[in-house]
Amino acid sequence: MTWSETAVIVIAVVLVLGWLVWVSATRLDRLHRKVVASRLALDAQLLRRSAVAAELATSGVLDPVSSVLLLEATRDASSGSSDGERELAVAVPDLEPLVREPQADGRAGRGPSRGTVSRALEGDLGDERSQAESTLSSTLRAVLDDPAEVEDLYELPEAGVLLDDLAGAWYRVQLARRFHNEAVDQAQRMRAKVLVRAVRLAGRASMPQTVELDDTWPVALRRPRAMPGATGGA
What is the maximum span of the chain, computed from C-alpha positions, in angstroms? Predict the structure, then answer.
């Protein structure tokens, strides 16, 4: 084999490897962005569920004990939402602009600093918030555990609207969490590939993690019929 033939083969191999690296980097970047977008969607639905649950707790249609317990659970869940931006920065710090707070003119805000991200990488990914959301789920199930009482609530115009809103928000939480965890699984499989690990395409971004929390549906709460895949009331 002549020198020129060897050079052509080497160049061809380099070009192929470069193309593979570019394809892998593009794919990984797209998956990271998908993880961030799905996490933002999940955060929004969790906040919506908490807000509707708080409205239900203060509406006066529940007994005093249930109202107090539910209001405390919603406050704990809502207080954990302030960590959402930090958690997203930990999950994909290289995509920091996507999780910045928008300003009044629509431009991205300052967002978390690199130092904040570095410190956050040493912590967890929101176990306290997951626990708070799980507690809210269990509290709602306890409040809505009696089918007869819940059916009576549905007969009240104000309570019926709130229960329908809660069902819609809860169903979207389940969908959003499922989509987010699927996106995380795809990103994790991509980052496990030999080429991605060898070239360190993920940079300093920590491995995205699935969101694990209790979002089991209350037995007595009707499922929203108008949504795709939703069934009738339990």
Answer: 89
